[in-house]
Every structure is written in C-alpha cells, then in structure tokens.
Design goal:
The complex is a heterodimer of chains A (279) and B (421).
Chain A lengths: L15 H25 L22 E6 L8 H9 L10 E6 L5 E6 L8 H5 L5 E3 L5 E3 L9 H5 L6 E2 L27 E2 L5 H9 L13 H5 L5 E5 L6 H7 L17 E4 L5 H5 L1
Parallel strand pairs in A: 1-9
Antiparallel strand pairs in A: 1-8, 2-3, 4-5, 6-7
Chain B lengths: L9 E3 L2 E3 L2 H25 L14 H12 L2 H11 L6 H25 L8 H4 L6 H25 L3 H4 L1 H5 L1 H19 L1 H24 L12 H27 L7 H32 L5 H11 L2 H21 L1 H4 L2 H28 E3 L8 E3 L6 H24 L10
Antiparallel strand pairs in B: 1-2, 3-4
Helix pairs in contact in B: 1-17, 2-4, 2-11, 2-16, 3-4, 3-10, 4-6, 4-17, 6-9, 6-10, 10-11, 11-12, 11-16, 12-14, 14-16
Classes of the chains: A alpha+beta (279), B mainly alpha (421).
Chain lengths: 279, 421
C-alpha cells in the first residue's frame, strides 16, 4: 500500500484556511491588545511619571522628624496648624494626638504625623501609583491619579491616611488662628495624607532656606509646637536639628518596628519619673 | 432535535400561573431601587455610606468578592470542556460561562460605586503599578471579563432569533448580518481552547490575589496569612461549582429535560463536593495557623472582642465549617444519594459558606484593629452599619445578576450547534 506523502492536499478537504485564520486572528487581537496596553506606559503624561525623576532634591536629603514624648503636652496645636495649612475640615486630621500609657502605667501624649516609612505598605498596595515615595523619602500623593479605592488606608498600620468623604466646601475653622491655607483643596473621593508640608520644603530649598531650621521651609506642626517637642530635618545631615536631637538619645523608638516599615519619624521615649523609679 | 423549554408554573387550585413576568417585575423594582441608591452615591459621594476611615471597606466589597467567587465555575468548566475535552460537559460549560460573566460584570458594577472617584475606574489599566495586588486584580478582571464576553457571544448568538427570524429571510441586510454573526460564532468557538487557557491563567491569578489582598497586610494580624490566596481559589471553585450544580438542575433537568443526563449532573455535584472538602481542610489549617502560630500577640483579644459584637465564632464553626463539611460529603456521594431535592438543598450551603467566608474575612481585620502606640498596644473595636443607600445599590446589583440569569434560563437554548459537527 502506498503511503500518502504529508502534503497540503491532505488537509484540502478541511477549511484549513478558516481554521488558521481564526487562531491567527485571535492571536492578533490578543497581541495587539497587550501591545496597546503596554504602549500606554510610554505615553503617560509627564506629571504621572514625575516621581521617577530627580526633581525633588536629587536624593541626598532624607527628611525625618523626631518627637520628644517628654516635651509633648497634648495641646493639639500640631493638629490644628496642619488643618489650617493643608486646608482640612475639622473632622479630617492628618496628625493625631492621643493619650497613651507606658508599661508602668504612666500616661503620656503620643502625637502622630505620617511615619513616612522607608518601606511603606500604602505605596506597595496602591493600584495606580497615586501614592509614592519621593527621592527625599517623603511619602506623598498624586491626587489626580487616586481612584479612591482606599486600599492604602486599609494597609496603613498607623491609621495615618484620611479619605475625603465629602465635598470640601466648608469653612476652615482653624483659620486664621493657626495659619492660612497653603495648598489647594483636594476633590471629594480621594485619599489624603500628611506630606511633611512638601510645598514648604520644595519652595524653601529653591529660596536657599534650610528645612528644619528656617520656619518657612519647615512643616507647620513643627513650627507651631509651643514646647519644641517636634524637631524636623535632614537625617542624612548630622548637623540637622533632627539628627542632633536623635543623637541625644540612646534608645529612640519608632512605632510598630515589628512590621519592618522603617518609619522616618522617631520618638524619644518617656524618661521614667522619679516616683516610679523609687517604687 | 427541537429545543423545548418547560417553564415551571405555580399551581393555585386548578389554575397554573406562570410567575415569570411577576418575578421579572420584582427584579426590575429591585433594579430601580438600586438606581435611587446609585444616584445618591454618585451625587453626594461616599458620605452617604456607613463607611469610615477605620472601616473603609464594607458591604459592597463583600458583594464584589462573593460575586467574583461565585463566577468561579466558569474557569473550572472552561478547562474541563475545552482543554480536557469532556464533551458531555459542553452544555454545562455554557451555563458556567454565563454565570462567570454575570458574576464578574456584577462585581465591576458594584466596584464602580465603591470608588471615591468612579470616573477614574480606568486608571489602573493605564497607570500601571505592578507591585499592587489590586492592580493585578483589576487587570485580570478586565481581561477575563473580555474573555468571558468572547465565550458568551456564541452562547447568545445561537438563539434562533439570530438565524431563523422572519426578518432575516425578508431583507438582504439582515441576512448579511446573520451570516457575519455566524462567522463570529464560528471563530470564537474555534478560539475556545486558547480562551480557556487564558481564562484559567487569569482566574487563578486574580482569585488568589483577592485572598492575598488581605493576606499580605502584616499590620492586621487577623488577615495576615499565606493561606488566604489558596483558600480564596478553592472556595471559589467549590462554591462556584455548587452554584453551577444548583442552577444546572433548574435550567437543564427542570426546564430542558433530556439535554443533560442525570449522570453528568451527579458528576458536577461530585466535583463540587470534592473541592469543598479540600477547601475546608485548608481552612482548618488556616484557622490553626492564625490562632496558634501568629506573630500577632493580640489575636486572642481580637477574636474575643469580635465575638462581643457579632457571632464570629458561630459564623465560623457553623457557617464555614459545617456548611461546607456536611454538603461536601453529601455532594461527593451524589451517585448514591440520587435524590435531587437533597442534592439541591446541599448545594446551597457551600454558596452561603463562600459568602460568609468573604464577609468575615473582610470585616474581621477592619472591625478589630490593633493600635500603634509603642508600649501597651491594644485592640480597638470599630463599628460599621451599612446605610440604606448601600443596601439599595447592593439590591440593584443582585437584581441585575438575577435578571440576567432568569432571562437566559428562560430564552437561551444552551445547545451548541457546532458540537454536532
């Protein structure tokens, strides 16, 4: 018996063309879809990608804050100044002051800005890259990108993120006692957070000021603090107020170190009170 | 073979009443109620919900997770029909595709309202952040929804109206359209295996990532768990297939007798039963790991506090353990039981179990959260009560799902013309 050679004719009775067309057609559609989606990554508006560039401080600054728990009197001025400068309604607080206790039961005030973690959970989870770490370590937001899914709020172990639930139309009750708005109000439905007053730092550096030293370039909460409990500065610079303050303490603490978020906000722990020491 | 669809009728004395129009009317009412809620949400924003900064995810996320999970049978049966080539499941596979499409589109619908900026829903597709689980989920869901549409189009186009409508005979234009549609059906049918592979990949990716969405958050001890992804995949497969079995009995055994043999239905039940039991096995390990090996020292306190405000332990042991174990065993023994009433009743429970798993998972970590203070961290108890607007939008989305299913069950033939080639 003669073997039929494997030729195209063998498949002639089948609509081979149609079959291959369908598969090819499918692949073409799938391929071009993926291609088009990838292309969008190269056509992003400049603003959306700005945090990849080096425009904020060329990476040699590392802004951080030191809060001396012993000096904090719980007056809440930091919260109020923050609300005035960032133009927040009364029920929205980037900064929070709470009353806590040590293991010995001694009460103290814990004032908490955003920790500006080096390994921020909120940045890792954001589906659109609306929140990002600047080259100088500040964790900030692109309010035009945010879709308001609130995953970052769920992820943040410090409760530092605030959602803009309603239209920001009301009066700012902290103005003028605690300052004046310095940034635009954010639209309803985006996530907001403490930015270490990045607008002050950026414009201050442009004018040759030193953040942490010159008030115009320092976060509002630090400037307003009546007891000097908050100190701000460049952690990379050993002469900055923050580094100096840190060097006075052997055991500065950071919140929830167990989570490896590496906050850039340090706390000087409460010194044991004489009474407690005797007991 | 002619398709005859038997419509179940209610008997009032000697009268037989077709309740279908009443049912559709009710669903349309639910849809309208949803519209009122949706209007409120879109005009006033999320302040009309009961969500807060402490509990930012609520009822809608639970509906979203559940409806995606209940569409899980689509990828399971896509693989069974198109890759493993079990021809006897082909008709079932079409119902699975429909359930998948309804589940995913309902999820997309409810998520739209859950966003603070609904009109930016497309941002993840353009502004990539590949480290984010939520980004990966969005991309997978968008792509998988397209796959499901491609798989669903042939199922819809096989309706006689697209081939034998009198208008097609009368006008050349409609004839051309009909021929074109037939070609589309043919191409999509031929692309079946490729679509099935794509569907399987995308489904496994995002069903797992939905679990990982919670599982990676180390700051919340009740969530932080590497088993969450596996658990979400398996419960979606088990619960989704249970739902498929329940609806298959209604759509095929009751309404289209003769199209699918009872043997095939038993096999679906057994698949569902096996996966449900596997899922509950992993769930038990997850429970043990969370309770005994967690690095979070406050787990016991968190659970204690949760139980003071809601019956979490009961919903776990009854709702998630026994509601899975008992029906799992019954469904696995479907061939011996051979009683469709018992099997149908049993297949409802894994569906409830799946929804409870999502509900509890979502709220456990949000309601009881740990404070960040350095020396004496404690557990803080938050509260959340959905407002009527949230219930309204939820009702609307569920009505949409039921409406889609009811119309399909009543009018779609579910018979593949291509299969007889």
């Amino acid at each position: 018996m003669e073997k039929t050679p494997l030729t195209e004719n063998q498949f002639a009775h089948k609509p081979a063309e149609e079959k291959s067309f369908s598969r090819r057609g499918f692949l073409a559609v799938a391929g071009s879809t993926v291609g088009a989606l990838t292309l969008t990554q190269f056509m992003l508006p400049a603003k959306a990608k700005s945090h990849d560039s080096n425009e904020h401080g060329e990476g040699h600054h590392k802004w951080g804050m030191v809060v001396d728990i012993n000096k904090c009197i719980g007056c809440n001025y930091c919260t109020y100044a923050c609300q005035a400068v960032n133009d927040l309604s009364e029920d929205m607080q980037y900064n929070k002051v709470t009353s806590e206790k040590t293991e010995n039961g001694e009460a103290f005030f814990l004032s908490r800005p955003c920790m500006h973690c080096e390994n921020p959970p909120c940045v890792h989870v954001c589906p659109v890259g609306a929140t990002y770490v600047r080259d100088d370590g500040i964790v900030t937001m692109d309010y035009d990108l945010c879709i308001g899914c609130r995953y970052c709020e769920v992820a943040c172990p410090y409760d530092a993120r605030v959602f803009n639930w309603r239209d920001p139309n009301g009066e700012n009750s902290r103005v003028p006692e605690f300052g004046f708005p310095e940034v635009d109000r954010r639209p309803r439905g985006v996530m907001e957070k403490c930015t270490f007053c990045e607008h002050r730092i950026d414009s201050g550096l442009e004018r040759g000021l030193v953040p942490g030293v010159d008030e115009m370039a320092t976060p509002a909460c630090v400037v307003v603090c009546p007891t000097g409990a908050r100190v701000f500065g460049d952690l990379n610079d050993p002469e900055s107020p923050a580094s100096q303050s840190l060097s006075t303490c052997k055991t500065p603490i950071r919140l929830r170190e167990d989570l490896s978020t590496s906050p850039k906000v340090y706390y000087l722990p409460p010194r044991p009170q004489p009474m407690a020491e005797e007991a | 073979m002619e398709n005859t669809i038997h419509v179940p009728k209610l008997r009032f004395g000697s009268r037989h009443i077709d309740v279908f129009p009443i049912w559709i009317g009710l669903l349309l009412l639910g849809f309208a109620f949803g519209g009122v809620g949706a209007y409120q949400v879109l005009t006033h924003g999320l302040q009309v919900t009961g969500l807060t900064d402490q509990v930012p995810w609520g009822l809608w996320i639970t509906i979203d997770l559940s409806s995606i999970a209940l569409g899980g049978s689509a990828f399971v049966f896509g693989v069974i029909v198109y890759l493993l080539r079990f021809k006897r499941f082909e008709v079932i596979g079409r119902l699975a595709v429909l359930l998948g499409f309804l589940g995913y589109s309902a999820a997309g619908l409810v998520l739209f309202f859950d966003l603070g900026q609904p009109l930016r829903f497309w941002h993840p597709v353009v502004f990539w952040q590949p480290h984010s689980l939520l980004w990966e989920i969005t991309m997978c869901v968008v792509l998988y929804l397209s796959v499901l549409v491609a798989e669903l189009i042939p199922v819809i186009l096989e309706h006689p109206a697209f081939r034998d409508h009198p208008l097609i005979q009368r006008y050349a234009f409609f004839k051309t359209v009909a021929a074109l549609l037939e070609k589309v059906t043919h191409i999509l049918h031929k692309a079946g295996p490729a679509l099935a592979i794509l569907g399987l990949t995308l489904s496994l990716l995002h069903q797992a990532s939905l679990g990982a969405t919670y599982g990676v958050l180390s700051g919340r001890g009740l969530w932080f768990s590497p088993t969450a992804p596996v658990l979400f995949v398996l419960s979606a497969m088990g619960g989704g297939t249970s739902l498929l079995f329940l609806l298959s009995v209604i759509v095929f055994r009751v309404m289209r007798p003769g199209l699918v043999s009872d043997k095939v239905l038993y096999e679906i039940a057994r698949i569902a039963g096996a996966v449900v039991l596997l899922c509950i096995y992993i769930r038990m390990w997850d429970w043990a790991v969370t309770n005994y090996y967690s690095f979070d020292h406050e787990i016991a306190t968190q659970k204690e506090l949760l139980n003071t405000i809601a019956p979490y332990d009961i919903t776990f042991w009854v709702g998630q353990f026994f509601f899975a174990l008992i029906p799992g065993a019954i469904l696995l023994a479907a061939k011996r039981i051979k009683n469709f009433r018992v099997l149908m009743a049993a297949s409802v429970l894994p569906v409830i179990c799946l929804i409870l798993l999502r509900w509890n998972y979502n709220f456990a970590g949000l309601i009881a959260s740990i404070t960040y203070d350095p020396f004496t961290p404690s557990v803080q108890l938050n509260s959340y009560v959905p407002t009527w607007q949230e219930w309204a939008v939820g009702t609307g989305v569920i009505s949409y799902w039921l409406l889609g299913f009811s119309l399909a069950a009543r009018y779609l033939p579910f018979r593949s013309k291509e299969a007889h080639h």
